[in-house]
Amino acid sequence: MATSIKLSDTIVNDAKRYGKVYSRSTPKQIEYWANIGKITEENPDLPYNFIKDILLAKSELTDNQVVPYKFG
Question: What is the pTM of this model?
Answer without folding.
Answer: 0.77
